[in-house]
Amino acid sequence: MKKLERVYFLYFCSMSKLPNITTSIFSVMSQLANEHGAINLSQGFPNFPEDERLLQISERIIRENIHQYTPMAGLPSLLEKIANQTLKQYGRKVNITTEMLITAGATQGVFTAINTFVNQDDEVLILDPSYDSYEPSVLVAGGKPVRVSLNDDYTPNFNRIENAISAKTKMIVINNPHNPTGRIWTEQDFEALETILEKHPQILILGDEVYEYITFSQPHISFNTRLKLIDRTIIASSFGKSLHVTGWKVGYLIAPENLMFEMKKVHQFLVFSVNSFSQHAISEYLDVVDFSEVSKMYQRKRDLFQNLIKDSRFELMPCDGTYFQVVNYNQISNKNDVDFAKELIVNHGVASIPISVFYNDATDRHMLRFCFAKTDETLMVAAEKLNKI
Predict the structure, then answer these.
(1) pTM, rounded to two decimals
(2) Which residues does the chain have with pLDDT short of 50?
(3) Residue 270 sits in the same domain as residue 205
């Protein structure tokens, strides 16, 4: 690099709000999988067909007059149906005019919530391992991410959470059901959080519940049901995971009126109007979809994948929800998880995600995450390869 070019390079790097962010591990692993023809169980998206009813709705309405802007807050019929589902599922009555917002996926909802309320030097608690969009959103807002490790079994450690709270703490982000580990919070967990936050009324909660309809042995407990916390909680969810349309990027926020009023100010200059076709299609599809069947379908896939590799040298970790299975490979290799994940692709033809990348300090306990939102055939072929290791 020439001297002048290097000067410009360093100058623009110094302007970056995200100087340490590089290509995501998801892109790295997917590209490596493509290069080696590996089965991709790394990224969290299904490879099976969408519901035929949704496809039929889509084919019919594509020719209708639905292709212009929807209202900034979202398509009224979609808002109403989400509100009805929230009332049915959680017993919470939501005002669609003042307490709801359609977003371009939950990630945009998370970004909007954080950048609405987090100011320079505000601290935001993030529980590690954590989804990779939280910290960058905090940094762009000028805030300080405070990473708090979960227990070794990926349950919340409330002593660490309480000790991490300071006078500068503005928000805590809680992902439940949890990506990447598949764990879900219990009643006792929520009660412990309520006890802590009762002492800190200034702290907002951002509840990421995108996997709310994918739980197994125990039901999902939503922040929608927590009366002691609901007045300070922003709930982010989406349809991509539960309806198998991750590329449509339609999500939503639910929050008290005073918080939603502020978030709409930011949202209108980020997105203004979420994809109209997707909103119309999902709105109509919500009349026929049964979310309990979605959960049963994924439980069957989880059970299939677990049974297929139960005799392998991988140790299965608990999976209470989401469509991710975490495994330990201590019996196979001493390599760090990033190197082992790459080896798994190159030498054995299966792609995964190393769990260390979800930690701020790259904690490596020899864990990998597999996505089982795949056809049975895909899971069987992948398991055959894993069983040979």
Answers:
(1) 0.94
(2) 8
(3) yes
